[in-house]
Structure to design on (569 residues):
């Protein structure tokens, strides 16, 4: 990887040549005052925000038939964190064993979105998939049953999810569960039950079950898909293969490399049936601060569920629920207006101090919107006209504050008309047509990435992932540079903190070209959740002086609160 000095790159910003009739200027913004940039759908709020009531904790009920006294009530999804939990008296990492078991029942209406977690977690850093957590998620009723998911997250925001076939009826029926983590078990402790199966995987490929079946049938024509799935599930529970995507009966598998290096086994048992998986290599060494056992809300917009938990055993200790255990609660008995929903962007000029050395910056919360969603937009300044024939540089400081699954945001140069144009096709909205800049994009297992983006048109675009980053709330400098004379057709170079990476444009990209008239922040037109990112101390290329740019007032768009918090899915 090439390493360079940000100071050296910045020094070149004052040396930009003339292209066309107007000089390319280097403008600076420290955002100590509102810059008056143009905003379109960058601040959205509801004009009929619903009132919700979190009401869960210890209850003197007997819904599960285990005697008076349960943990339960009504729990809502919300970006406002809420939990009811037992402090553990110490912080556990993924090097320490932990376990819990009990009985559970749920009640919820058909077709609504909802969800909550139970298990082990850290109280200090909340958010979507709470940092330092190992828990079970119950969500989304289909045909009267809710799905169970098992996921974990380290104290460095890295994690994974297991999607077993377990479902729980939402009819109040009682079911048993056990969650167990064993840190000292290694994948290397296990052997393949079928010696032929590992030979069917080639290199690092990820393949579907049907592909494995075709290969197996060449050797054993009598093999069935059902039998093969049983063997693959056995190998998954031993950590020998990774089932990294599952949707109904659609699986994708890959064979683990260096199994002896993979340690830390999580087992979820539901109604007597068990599934297991292992931590991703390296995650056991990540810091973690697991200091609570209990129930916490799924921190995304909206929907509620009733639940009851009883017969609890935590780390070998039976919890007495015949009277109030006086666990710790956060927002678990509160009523408030729920203002958050999908597409509730809240970015632009803000009087905060995440990214720079002084008061005032730009940024905030960016949602990924489906291409059909009219609430996509930007916050940007008029830069006159720039093209891929022009040298372009921008720099500043970035602070990544929070992030949820599939969250993204972009900063760079774009064409306003193309950004706001109608688009057809689910995957045709991101990167935007005629965009040049960077993107903060999700990579759940390892964190996020800073990515270089060039998109004269979406079908010939590239997103080149750079260093892994997490929402650690640390200020980091960046420099983005486009040199039209480097490489075969121009070269992008990005320096983020102390890492630098580059990508050359293709001849086709350069031939198609782009016409940029705006520079600023964009939310992606690609379905996903959110990121909170802030930018300060910007320097950027422009053909229009700041005193020649029209000033705009910041405005909020008010819309009806969408059903279940999300109108477009």
């Amino acid at each position: 990887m090439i390493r360079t000095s940000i100071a050296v790159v910045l020094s070149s910003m004052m040396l930009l040549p003339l292209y066309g009739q107007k000089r390319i200027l280097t403008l600076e913004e420290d955002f100590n005052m509102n810059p008056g940039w143009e905003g379109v759908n960058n601040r959205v709020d509801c004009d009929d925000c619903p009132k919700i009531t979190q009401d869960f904790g210890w209850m003197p009920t007997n819904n599960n038939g285990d005697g008076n006294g349960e943990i339960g009530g009504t729990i809502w999804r919300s970006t406002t964190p809420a939990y009811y939990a037992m402090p553990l008296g110490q912080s556990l990492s993924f090097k320490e064993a932990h376990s819990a078991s009990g009985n559970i029942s749920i009640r919820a209406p058909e077709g609504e979105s909802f969800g909550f977690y139970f298990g082990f977690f850290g109280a200090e850093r909340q958010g979507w998939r709470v940092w330092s957590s190992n828990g079970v998620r119950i969500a989304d009723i289909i045909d009267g049953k809710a799905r169970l998911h098992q996921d974990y997250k380290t104290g460095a925001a890295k994690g994974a999810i297991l999607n077993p076939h377990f479902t729980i009826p939402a009819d109040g029926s009682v079911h048993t569960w056990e969650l167990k983590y064993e840190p000292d078990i290694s994948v290397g402790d296990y052997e393949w039950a079928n010696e032929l199966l590992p030979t069917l995987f080639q290199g690092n490929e990820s393949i579907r079950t049907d592909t494995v079946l075709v290969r197996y049938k060449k050797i054993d024509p009598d093999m069935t898909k059902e039998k093969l799935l049983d063997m693959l599930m056995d190998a998954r529970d031993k950590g020998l293969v990774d089932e990294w995507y599952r949707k109904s009966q659609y699986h994708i598998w890959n064979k683990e490399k260096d199994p002896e290096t993979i340690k830390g086994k999580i087992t979820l048992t539901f109604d007597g049936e068990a599934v297991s998986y292992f931590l991703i290599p390296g995650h056991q060494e990540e810091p973690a601060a697991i200091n609570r056992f209990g129930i916490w809300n799924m921190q995304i917009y909206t929907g509620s569920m009733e639940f009851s938990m009883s017969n609890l055993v935590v780390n070998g200790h039976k919890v007495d629920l015949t009277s109030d255990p006086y666990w710790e609660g956060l927002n678990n008995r509160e009523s408030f207006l729920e203002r958050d929903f999908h597409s509730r962007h809240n970015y632009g000029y803000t009087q905060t101090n995440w990214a720079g050395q002084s008061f005032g910056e730009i940024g905030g919360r960016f949602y990924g919107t489906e291409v059909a969603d009219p609430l996509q937009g930007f916050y940007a300044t008029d830069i006159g006209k720039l093209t891929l024939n022009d040298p372009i540089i921008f720099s500043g400081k970035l602070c990544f504050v929070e992030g949820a699954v599939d969250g993204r945001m972009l900063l760079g140069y774009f064409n306003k008309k193309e950004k706001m144009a109608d688009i057809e096709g689910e995957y045709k909205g991101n990167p935007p047509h005629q965009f040049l800049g960077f993107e903060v994009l999700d990579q759940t297992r390892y964190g996020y990435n800073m990515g270089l983006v060039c998109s004269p048109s979406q079908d010939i675009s590239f997103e080149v992932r750079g260093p892994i980053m997490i929402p650690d709330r640390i200020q980091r400098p960046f420099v983005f540079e486009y040199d039209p004379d480097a490489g075969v057709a121009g070269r992008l170079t990005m320096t983020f903190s102390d890492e630098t990476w580059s990508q050359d444009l293709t001849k086709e990209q350069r031939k198609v070209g782009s016409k940029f008239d705006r520079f600023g922040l964009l939310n992606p037109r690609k379905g996903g959740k959110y990121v909170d990112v802030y930018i300060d101390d910007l320097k950027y290329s422009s053909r229009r002086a700041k005193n020649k740019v029209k000033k705009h007032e910041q405005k909020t768009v008010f819309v009806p609160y969408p059903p279940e918090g999300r109108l477009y899915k």
Notes: Helices lie at 6-11, 209-217, 225-237, 416-420, 507-512. The chain has two domains: 6-16+26-46+341-562, 51-187+253-337.
